[in-house]
């Protein structure tokens, strides 16, 4: 495996990291001006970099041979393709925002499983952004880096993602969940330490062929925007939970109606989860996870059989609550379990998957971890 020096014929100036994330609750609410509560994972993307003076970039990953090269002053949306579009997008958005970045050699390493819905794309954008800024000694507020990373993914890569993933990658802290109010653009760090309560948070990658096709995500977002327009509100966050039935009665399309019901009830579930966690009642958050999954399955229609089987099996094995997490159509579930039941719960899921003929799942550590930083 090639070293940085072998790839670029120079020593690196430093390494920067940005983590993936798992969302505890608040799914598909971020682009509706809603509430979310992710944690950062110990799994991360590391970008090792050296500065260049010619305004050019060379990007490589230890997972693939060769490198991709491009010039900073020639970047425009979609001008670089495949995985290199993400570091190119980071360079493009920083240039557009007026930051005096220069060219760079970039080597990307990751222990985030691709396609698991743990936001490897946001982590790559954030890690590249902090590396390019760090090479020039430029300090930028983490939330601003997150907003720029979202802009890069929206406008450069062309993916209509919300802001949650980037904020989690930049702004999470160890031992906490990030309570992020998108409409207010405000954050709060909520203590989250399952081990202290004798609990564990399982993250299970169901290894399903990731069916999170752009068209399905875009269709859900379009339905939400259509509903907001019909209801005369700027976003579905403005639909009061207590007035939900009245709002649903004003909608003519049943599919749109179900999409709205998910978003409004999911925002309320985030509020309830925060209240319970502040009260030290983490066990009582479990049923909110399960209710979220049912809503995502029945009203938002973004689960797949592997996700449903994993959730049902975890609950049957005694989990306090379980839900799919991420964009859907594949990816991961989370399950809140008694710490001494973590291994038996995972074993039950593995057994159920074998019986259904699914690929074997895998699990990840879900220790709440810090956001992006310099490593060396």
Q: Class by helix and strand content?
A: alpha+beta
* Number of separate domains: 2
Q: Low-confidence segments, ≥5 residues, pLDDT <50?
A: none
Portion in helices: 25-40%
The counted number of beta strands is 12
Tell me the fraction of residues in β-strands, as a range.
15-25%
Q: Could you name the CATH topology of the largest domain?
A: Ribosomal Protein S5, domain 2
Q: Give the end-to-end Cα distance, rounded to a whole number of Å.
A: 21 Å
User: Mean of residue pLDDT?
Assistant: 95
Task: Give an account of the 3D structure.
It is a single chain. The two termini are 21 Å apart. The chain has 2 domains: 192 residues, Ribosomal Protein S5, domain 2, CATH 3.30.230; 172 residues, GHMP kinase, C-terminal domain (Alpha-Beta Plaits, 2-Layer Sandwich). The strands form 2 sheets. Strands 1, 2, 3, 4, 5, 6, 7 and 12 form an 8-stranded mixed sheet that branches. Helix 2 crosses helix 4, helix 4 runs antiparallel to helix 5 and helix 10 crosses helix 11. Helix content is 39%, strand content 22%. The chain is of the alpha+beta class and 376 residues long. GO terms for molecular function: ATP binding; galactokinase activity; metal ion binding. Its EC number is 2.7.1.6. One of its GO terms (cellular component) is cytosol. This is Galactokinase.
């Amino acid at each position: 495996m090639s070293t940085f020096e072998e790839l670029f014929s120079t020593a690196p100036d430093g390494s920067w990291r940005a983590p993936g994330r798992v969302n505890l609750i608040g799914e598909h609410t971020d682009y509706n001006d809603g509430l979310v509560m992710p944690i950062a994972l110990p799994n991360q993307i590391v970008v090792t970099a050296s500065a260049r003076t010619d305004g050019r970039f060379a990007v490589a990953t230890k997972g693939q041979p060769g490198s991709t090269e491009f010039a900073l002053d020639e970047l425009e949306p979609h001008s670089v393709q495949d995985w290199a579009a993400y570091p190119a997008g980071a360079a493009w958005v920083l240039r557009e925002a007026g930051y005096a970045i220069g060219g760079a050699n970039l080597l990307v390493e990751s222990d985030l499983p691709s396609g698991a819905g743990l936001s490897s794309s946001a982590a790559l954008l954030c890690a590249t952004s902090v590396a390019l800024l760090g090479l020039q000694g430029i300090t930028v507020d983490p939330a601003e880096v997150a907003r720029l990373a979202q802009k890069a993914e929206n406008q450069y890569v062309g993916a209509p993602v919300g802001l949650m993933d980037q904020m989690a990658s930049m702004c999470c802290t160890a031992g906490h969940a990030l309570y992020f109010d998108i409409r207010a653009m405000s954050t709060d760090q909520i203590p989250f330490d399952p081990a202290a309560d004798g609990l564990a948070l399982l993250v299970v990658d169901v290894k399903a062929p990731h069916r999170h096709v752009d068209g399905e995500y875009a269709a859900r977002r379009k339905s939400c925007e259509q509903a907001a327009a019909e209801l005369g509100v700027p976003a579905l966050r403005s639909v009061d939970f207590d007035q939900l039935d009245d709002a649903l009665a004003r909608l003519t399309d049943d599919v749109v109606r179900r999409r709205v019901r998910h978003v409004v009830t999911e925002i309320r579930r985030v509020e309830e989860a925060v209240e319970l966690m502040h009260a030290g009642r983490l066990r009582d958050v479990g049923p909110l996870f399960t209710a979220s999954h049912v809503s995502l399955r029945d009203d938002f229609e973004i689960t797949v059989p592997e996700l449903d089987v994993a959730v049902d099996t975890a609950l049957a094995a005694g989990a306090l609550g379980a839900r799919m997490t991420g964009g859907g159509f594949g990816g991961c579930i989370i399950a809140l379990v008694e710490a001494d039941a973590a291994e038996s719960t995972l074993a039950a899921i593995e057994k159920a998957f074998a019986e259904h003929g699914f690929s074997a799942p895998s699990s990840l550590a879900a220790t709440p971890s810090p956001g992006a930083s310099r490593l060396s």
